[in-house]
Amino acid sequence: DEWFSRGKKVPEDPGADTVDFPKRTTPAKGYELLFQPEVVRIYISLLKESKTPAILEASAGAIQNLCAGSWTYGRYIRSALRQEKGLSAIADLLTHDSERVVKAASGALRNLAVDLRNKELIGKHAIPNLVKNLPGGQQTPAKNLSEDTVVSILNTINEVIVDNLEAAKKLRETQGIEKLVLINKSGNRSEREVRAAALVLQTVWGYKELRKPLEKEGWKKSDFQVNLSNASRTQGGNSFDDSTL
User: Fold this and answer.
1) DSSP letter at 126?
2) Cα–Cα distance between 46 and 44 in angstroms, integer?
3) Is residue 138 part of a domain?
4) Which of 118, 125, 164, 172 has the fewest CB atoms found within 10 Å of its own CB?
């Protein structure tokens, strides 16, 4: 309890490039072992070196949970992942053949993007691979991901582009708008997918700097509004938003 309270006294600076873990006076034990700096390095090593999908999924899932919400040490771990060059390792998993690995990586990136510096880096380097995982478009072969995975990816994209104009520009440059509008209007996607896609589109339209370029490309304001009338009512096994935020 003393260690936790000492950690909470550190000033909140989500944009700081480095954040040092509080110095310990006693060895970590029990559940504390799960969120020590050296353990974060082990997760990153597993992400970079392992070829086993189950290990990659579990490592990304552990990072997702450790970085969730406003927990004090979640902030330290979000920074540590950046300092240890772990962001690129997680972003690379978005191209993995295993859907479970892709979903775990997406969830981890969403929680890591709460950190403003991470958000900037993820926007630059992960948006293209996030967009490639969305249904539609010209990719060959087309990915056929589950509703839960598509919703996870859409929620991650939204987290990354909120208060991040450059990431929203990158989304537009990588044909993300076409895929989002297709999800919103095609009529063969679930209500959860349509709502998640519409949230991203509304975030994009909220940037006044992007409206004229989008209109020049032929998009209208109505393209960026939710369209549930044509949404498929078929839901997956889970009707909840699978997120640790």
Assistant:
1) T
2) 5
3) yes
4) 125
